[in-house]
Amino acid sequence: MTPQAATPAYRRLSVEQRRSQLLESALALFAHRAPEDVSLDDVAEAAGVSRPLVYRYFPGGKQQLYEAALTSAAEALRLCFDEPREGPTAARLARVLDRYLAFVDEHDTGFSALLQGGSVVETSRTTALVDGVRRAAAEHLYRHLGVAEPGPRLRMTVRMWIAAVEASSLIWLDEDKRPPRDELRDWLVEQFTAVLVVTAGRDPQTAAVVAALAGDDRD
Amino acid sequence: MTPQAATPAYRRLSVEQRRSQLLESALALFAHRAPEDVSLDDVAEAAGVSRPLVYRYFPGGKQQLYEAALTSAAEALRLCFDEPREGPTAARLARVLDRYLAFVDEHDTGFSALLQGGSVVETSRTTALVDGVRRAAAEHLYRHLGVAEPGPRLRMTVRMWIAAVEASSLIWLDEDKRPPRDELRDWLVEQFTAVLVVTAGRDPQTAAVVAALAGDDRD
C-alpha cells in the first residue's frame, strides 16, 4: 500500500469529487443505521477526511448531508433513464437497464437504503424522492413506447413492471448479485415484452404498442 | 336514519367484533396520519364508542392499538394465501387473488398504510410485518407450484410477481378501483404464467413447473 492510499484524506480531489465522495460515504452509513445513530465523525472517518472538512461541504450538518445523499442518489437513478429515442425499443430498454443495474451494483447498500425507506425516521421524504424517480421512469417508458397518453391498463402494466424491476434489484443484492448482471438485464427486458403481450389481449392501445415492438424486430 | 344507527356506540357487538371494529377504525386513522397525530379520542369517535371502552380493549393505549391494528391487517392478509392444494394451479391462484383483492378493496386506506410504511415513525416494524406476509405468500406459491426447493431464478420470478401484484393493488386503489376486480385478478394470473414462461427459457426448474401447469390445463 502506498503512503498516499493509507492517508486518503490527503488525496487531491476536485470540489465535485470530494462532495460526491462524502455523499457516497454518508449514504453507505445511513443505509445501515438511523440518522440519529450516525455522527459527522463517522462520515468523516468513512470518507477518510477531517470533521471540519465535512462541515465545510455541508455547513447544515447531518440533516443537510442526509438529504443531499438521498437527493443525489435519486438524481443519479433518474439519469439512468435518459436514453435517446433511436433504434429498436428493446435495445434502448436494455441500455437503460444496463445503466440502472450498474448503479445498483455500484451503490448496493445506499441503493437498498433509498428503496427501503432509508431510515426509520425520514421515510416520508425518502418515499417522495423514490416516487419521483418511479414516475420519471414510467414517463420515459411511455415515450419510448411512442405513447403520448397511456390508458389505465398500459399505465398499470408499466408501473407493475417498474415495481418488479425494483424488487429484482433488491433480491439480486440479497442473492449476492446472482444471476450475472447481463442475464438479469435480458431477463427483465423479456419480462417486459411478455407482460405487454398479456395486456395487449385486454387493451387495444397496448396491442398497438406490441405490434409496433414486433415491427422493430423486423427492421 | 334510525336512532340506533345514529348512536353506534350502543350497537351490541361480541368482544371479537368490537375488537375488530376498533382495529379497523384505528387502521383507517393511522393510514392518514402519523401515530403521534392520532389520539384515542379520535379512535373512539371514529368507532362511535367511548374512550374508556377503547381503553378496556387496549389497556396499553395507543401504542398497543397501533401495533394490534398493523398485526391484525398482516394476519388477515396472510390468511388470504391459505388455499388447499387441489385442482388446477391457475384456479387456485385465482381464488387466492380473489381473497387478496377483496381484502384490498375492503381495507383500502388501511391496506395502503400497511404497504406504504403506515407512518413516518413505525416503518421498521411495519416493514418487518409486511416482509413476513411477502415471505409467507412466496412459500405458499412454491408449494402450489409443487416445488420444495426453489432455485434462485424461480424464487426471483415469484418474488417479482408478488411485488408487481402489490404495486397493482396500490395503483388500483389510486385509480378508483379500475379495472374491475375480476378483470384485475385474471390479468394477474395471466401475467404470472407469462413471466414463468419467460424464466422457463433460462431455468430448467421453472421449465418443469411450466410444463406441469400446461398439464393442468389439459385435465
TrEMBL record, chains A, B:
DNA-binding region positions on the chain: 39-58
PROSITE patterns assigned to the protein according to its UniProt record, in alphabetical order: HTH_TETR_2
GO molecular function: DNA-binding transcription factor activity; transcription cis-regulatory region binding
PANTHER family recorded: HTH-TYPE TRANSCRIPTIONAL REGULATOR RUTR, TRANSCRIPTIONAL REGULATORY PROTEIN (PROBABLY TETR-FAMILY)-RELATED
Protein name: TetR/AcrR family transcriptional regulator
InterPro entries for this protein: DesT_TetR_C (IPR054129), Homeodomain-like_sf (IPR009057), HTH-type_TetR-like_transc_reg (IPR050109), HTH_TetR (IPR001647)
SUPFAM superfamilies in alphabetical order: Homeodomain-like (SSF46689)
Source domain of life: Bacteria
Lineage of the species this protein comes from: Bacteria, Bacillati, Actinomycetota, Actinomycetes, Kitasatosporales
Pfam assignment, any one: TetR_C_46
Keyword terms of this UniProt record: DNA-binding, Transcription, Transcription regulation
Domain HTH tetR-type: 16-76
